[in-house]
Write a structure and sequence with these properties.
Elements: H1 15-22, H2 27-33, H3 38-62, H4 72-83, H5 97-110
Helix pairs in contact: 1-3, 3-4, 3-5
Length: about 110
Amino acid sequence: MRIHHEDCDVPMPNASDILSDFGRVSDKHREKFIPSDCEPLAAMWVRFVQISDSLGNILRAHYRVSGPRPNLETVEHLADLLQECAQVNHLPESSSDLLRLHAYQVELFYQ
Protein backbone atom coordinates (compact mmCIF):
# COMPACT_ATOMS: atom_id res chain seq x y z
CA MET A 1 0.00 0.00 0.00
CA ARG A 2 1.13 3.50 -0.72
CA ILE A 3 -0.13 6.69 0.85
CA HIS A 4 -1.82 9.21 -1.41
CA HIS A 5 -1.84 12.69 0.13
CA GLU A 6 -5.09 13.67 -1.53
CA ASP A 7 -6.81 10.86 0.41
CA CYS A 8 -5.45 11.95 3.80
CA ASP A 9 -6.48 14.81 6.04
CA VAL A 10 -4.47 13.96 9.14
CA PRO A 11 -0.88 15.00 9.86
CA MET A 12 1.97 12.51 9.63
CA PRO A 13 1.97 10.43 12.84
CA ASN A 14 4.81 10.32 15.31
CA ALA A 15 5.75 7.76 17.94
CA SER A 16 4.26 9.78 20.77
CA ASP A 17 0.83 9.55 19.09
CA ILE A 18 0.95 5.79 19.51
CA LEU A 19 2.57 5.72 22.92
CA SER A 20 0.08 8.17 24.40
CA ASP A 21 -2.74 5.75 23.56
CA PHE A 22 -1.03 3.03 25.58
CA GLY A 23 -1.53 5.09 28.74
CA ARG A 24 -5.25 4.33 28.55
CA VAL A 25 -4.69 0.56 28.43
CA SER A 26 -4.95 -1.23 31.74
CA ASP A 27 -1.75 -2.68 33.21
CA LYS A 28 -3.18 -6.18 32.87
CA HIS A 29 -3.89 -5.78 29.17
CA ARG A 30 -0.69 -3.86 28.49
CA GLU A 31 1.37 -6.64 30.04
CA LYS A 32 -0.54 -9.29 28.07
CA PHE A 33 -0.80 -7.68 24.63
CA ILE A 34 1.75 -4.87 24.28
CA PRO A 35 5.42 -5.81 23.88
CA SER A 36 7.94 -4.29 26.24
CA ASP A 37 9.74 -2.87 23.19
CA CYS A 38 6.78 -0.67 22.25
CA GLU A 39 8.77 2.60 22.09
CA PRO A 40 11.27 1.48 19.42
CA LEU A 41 8.48 -0.42 17.64
CA ALA A 42 6.41 2.76 17.49
CA ALA A 43 9.38 4.61 16.00
CA MET A 44 9.80 1.83 13.42
CA TRP A 45 6.13 2.06 12.48
CA VAL A 46 6.48 5.82 11.94
CA ARG A 47 9.52 5.16 9.74
CA PHE A 48 7.49 2.57 7.81
CA VAL A 49 4.75 5.16 7.22
CA GLN A 50 7.33 7.73 6.08
CA ILE A 51 8.86 5.24 3.65
CA SER A 52 5.39 4.38 2.32
CA ASP A 53 4.70 8.07 1.82
CA SER A 54 7.97 8.60 -0.06
CA LEU A 55 7.50 5.53 -2.24
CA GLY A 56 3.94 6.59 -3.02
CA ASN A 57 5.20 9.99 -4.19
CA ILE A 58 7.84 8.32 -6.36
CA LEU A 59 5.34 5.94 -7.95
CA ARG A 60 2.87 8.75 -8.68
CA ALA A 61 5.59 10.87 -10.23
CA HIS A 62 6.90 8.14 -12.53
CA TYR A 63 3.85 6.06 -13.38
CA ARG A 64 1.11 8.54 -14.19
CA VAL A 65 -1.54 7.59 -16.70
CA SER A 66 -1.37 11.07 -18.14
CA GLY A 67 0.46 14.29 -17.41
CA PRO A 68 4.01 15.51 -17.67
CA ARG A 69 6.97 13.34 -16.85
CA PRO A 70 8.89 14.39 -13.73
CA ASN A 71 11.80 16.74 -14.26
CA LEU A 72 15.26 16.25 -12.76
CA GLU A 73 14.52 18.62 -9.88
CA THR A 74 11.43 16.60 -8.90
CA VAL A 75 13.32 13.31 -9.11
CA GLU A 76 16.15 14.66 -6.94
CA HIS A 77 13.66 16.05 -4.41
CA LEU A 78 11.86 12.69 -4.19
CA ALA A 79 15.20 10.89 -3.82
CA ASP A 80 16.16 13.25 -0.99
CA LEU A 81 12.85 12.61 0.80
CA LEU A 82 13.39 8.86 0.54
CA GLN A 83 17.00 9.21 1.72
CA GLU A 84 15.71 10.98 4.86
CA CYS A 85 14.00 7.68 5.73
CA ALA A 86 17.35 5.86 5.85
CA GLN A 87 18.09 4.09 9.11
CA VAL A 88 20.23 6.26 11.34
CA ASN A 89 20.41 4.23 14.53
CA HIS A 90 21.33 0.60 14.60
CA LEU A 91 19.87 -1.69 17.21
CA PRO A 92 22.10 -2.77 20.07
CA GLU A 93 23.08 -6.43 20.22
CA SER A 94 20.93 -6.83 23.33
CA SER A 95 17.73 -6.07 21.36
CA SER A 96 14.94 -8.63 21.52
CA ASP A 97 14.25 -10.97 18.62
CA LEU A 98 10.90 -9.23 18.07
CA LEU A 99 12.56 -5.85 17.77
CA ARG A 100 15.26 -7.11 15.42
CA LEU A 101 12.68 -8.91 13.25
CA HIS A 102 10.67 -5.71 12.78
CA ALA A 103 13.79 -3.63 12.21
CA TYR A 104 14.88 -6.01 9.44
CA GLN A 105 11.43 -5.89 7.84
CA VAL A 106 11.38 -2.09 7.81
CA GLU A 107 14.90 -1.99 6.42
CA LEU A 108 13.95 -4.44 3.66
CA PHE A 109 10.95 -2.28 2.81
CA TYR A 110 13.21 0.77 2.62
CA GLN A 111 15.73 -1.00 0.38
